[in-house]
Design goal:
InterPro entries: Endo/Exo/Phosphatase_dom_1, RuvA_2-like
Number of strands: 4
Largest sheet: 2 strands, parallel
Shape: elongated
Helix content: 40-55%
Radius of gyration: 38 Å
Keywords: DNA-binding, Membrane, Transmembrane, Transmembrane helix
Low-confidence stretches: 144-148
Pfam families: HHH_3
Order of helices and strands: HHHHHHHEHHHEEHHHE
Strand order of the largest sheet: 1-2
Distance between the termini: 112 Å
Mean pLDDT: 81
Strand content: under 5%
Structural class: mainly alpha
GO molecular function, one term: DNA binding
Transmembrane segments: 16-34
Length: 287
């Protein structure tokens, strides 16, 4: 066998082989050289610095996106305006329902009474309330005439007021008088004067007329229910406590192994600060 003939190559074949060998050598060099490149490690201090820069950028972005509040009349608050201010859908609906009766809000306290917003939220947005000048003048005039109101000793007992007494008040109709008497019967007697505001369809001006002449002097004998022992059915008999809210209170009590402070009920959906003030009249913790 003649092996020599197998190694006899012309110049073109030799050049091709040499070029192929050169390419392979370059590929091997690149592979081993680049494979040795390691990612440079970052120290903890550098990581912390980068994180602070990111947090700073986020804070700047949040500050830019913060909604600026301008003076506004709460009587013309829209759904979107209420949402941006932090009101819940329920609170916004109460405001819109109140305004649909052609009733007006003339003060921050009116706004809280109607909507039931928390004290903290009211403190944030109330400085931006802007009412017409005639409202301010009326409030000023009212404060100047407060001295003309009857003293506590000269007022009659709200829990003994009669139909004739109420119907004789200014701006009071027979139907308005029935609303007061029916509600008093429903709750077993008034525990405080402000419960007059809870009477549906009774206007604020009518409440003022009642409070000028009457006040709670003899409170009904009501045993406060122990919130840690009462059942849902009995809870639902309390003003502003629906059966769904009653079940939520029971569930919260079970999960937390009891309720120490009645203010905890604010964590339950459907209970506002306004409602809690009324609920507290009928509940206790006995702790």
């Amino acid at each position: 066998m003649n092996l020599k003939s197998h190694f006899q190559l012309d110049n073109k074949k030799r050049s091709g082989i040499l070029l192929l060998i050169a390419i392979l050598i370059c590929c091997w060099w690149a592979y081993f050289s680049l494979g040795k490149i390691e990612q440079e490690s970052i120290s903890d201090s550098e990581v912390l610095l980068i994180q602070r820069q990111i947090d700073s950028l986020r804070s700047s972005k949040a500050a830019e996106e913060t909604i600026k509040i301008f003076p506004f009349n709460p009587n013309f608050m829209t759904d979107y305006k209420g949402y941006t201010l932090g009101l819940s859908p329920e609170e916004i609906d109460k405001l819109l329902a109140y305004r649909s009766q052609n009733l007006w809000i003339n003060s921050a306290s009116d706004f809280q009474t109607v909507t039931g917003v928390s004290d903290s939220l009211l403190a944030t947005i109330a400085p931006f309330f802007k009412f017409p000048d005639w409202v301010k003048n009326a409030q000023s005039k009212k404060s100047n005439t407060n001295s003309a109101y009857k003293s506590l000793a000269n007022k009659r007992d709200l829990n003994r007021v009669t139909f004739a007494d109420l119907s004789s008040l200014p701006n009071f109709t027979n139907e308005s008088a029935r609303l007061v008497l029916n509600y008093r019967k429903k709750i077993g007697g008034f525990l405080e004067d402000d419960q007059l505001y809870d009477i549906y369809n009774l206007k604020r001006a009518q409440v003022f007329e009642v409070k000028k002449e009457f006040t709670v002097k003899t409170k009904p004998n009501i045993d406060r229910l122990n919130v840690n022992e009462v059942n849902a059915s009995d809870l639902a008999t309390i003003p502003f406590v629906t059966f769904d809210i009653a079940r939520s209170i029971i569930n919260y009590r079970i999960l937390n192994e009891g309720i120490v402070n009645l203010d905890e009920l604010l964590k339950i959906e459907g209970i506002t600060a306004y409602k809690l003030d009324r609920i507290k009249l009928y509940l206790s913790t006995n702790q």
